[in-house]
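Interim report, section 4.2 (structural modelling).
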Amino acid sequence: MNYFLNEMQQEIKDLAHRIAEEKIRPVVQELDESGEFPWEIMKILADSDLFGVYLPEEYGGLGGGVLEQLLVVEELSRVCSGVAVSYAASGLGAFPILLYGTEEQKKKYIPDIAAGKKLAAFGLTEANAGSDAAGIETTAVRDGDEYVLNGTKQWITNGGEAEIYTVVAMTDKKKGSRGASAFIVEKGTPGFSFGKKENKMGIRASTTRELIFNDCRIPRENLLGREGTGFMVAMKTLDKTRPGIGAQAVGIAQGALEEAVKYARERVQFGQPISSFQAIQHMLADMATQVEAARALVYATARMIDGGAKSFAKESAMAKVFASDVAMRVTTDAVQVFGGYGYMKEYPVEKMMRDAKITQIYEGTNQIQRNVIALQLVKEFAGKIYE
Ligand code: COS
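Predicted structure of the assembly:
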């Protein structure tokens, strides 16, 4: 479908596509097996200016928006979503600074993120605070001109690889979600270390680790926004980044669809390519229709955000939930089209099915997305929406 991308958007998409085909595809299986962080690819993405596509020009970016970022995520995910999420998680870490940072904070941190010189990461989740994000237990206690952080963040994408972390911690436990605050923590700060690397089902090229804070002292000026706004920082960040999970899902599903069509044309059974059987044709038709519907919703949401909409929690959640459910169905069907071969690691679709699963879970489970959508529907009906 023609989405009438402008010249810059088309160039970004083509460039990401080329990098994915030429540099990522040859090492996909190796990265999946070793689980090694793809620093070489990160360097190529940085040299190609792709880390800054969505960041303002005044901080070294290309001045695009969420759509530009999603085009990169989609194209990388089509070939390897582990690489794509390593790229995207830097944006997840950058958005709190972009949205709530002071001019000094933006000037200090964004240019290096835009240039891909430093990766960023976002620390919200904890062992006892997943869907219940307000249940975080990490604390930040003010001590003169510093905050002292204690606690452990879990399953942090780019953990250990990133240099810049935006972290949410409780400054006043009694106040619940209104007692959380967001901070910038730099790698190398004394008292800040990392747990073991997780061994994951999919997106294995990405790194997932704990962030451990043990009397970690950070300067007071690393507070993002005001004390007590940390939950809001996290929610507004996720509103901006959830379409990115949608784009990741669209990319994975597109990759699986292409592999399934190619295989169906080549695989001969009963004397003819299986693509000539209606049972297979209908599966492929449904897969293609779902992928296009997911892409249309993801792009439309990105355009809504970039167009200046004030409230888009519902649409972001819709893009994420719809596209990730599509990715799960389409990759499962792709494995089915491949039959027994689809179950084997020599063929590309079993990885895609493993990779797709996480898109239904992270950045808010799909059950939480449905809660968000329903809550907004009710609020809209009552004429009360988030500003
Ligand atoms: N934009 C602005 N404000 C928001 C908001 C949004 N999208 N969502 C919630 N808020 C505000 C609410 O208005 C409320 O404000 P007040 O205290 O002023 O009334 C406050 O935040 C608390 O909201 P709520 O009571 O709805 O919070 P809950 O604790 O019930 O949690 C969910 C809400 C479940 C939606 C939230 O915890 C969530 O998104 N969980 C999933 C977390 C997640 O995505 N984790 C993935 C890890 S990050 S990669």
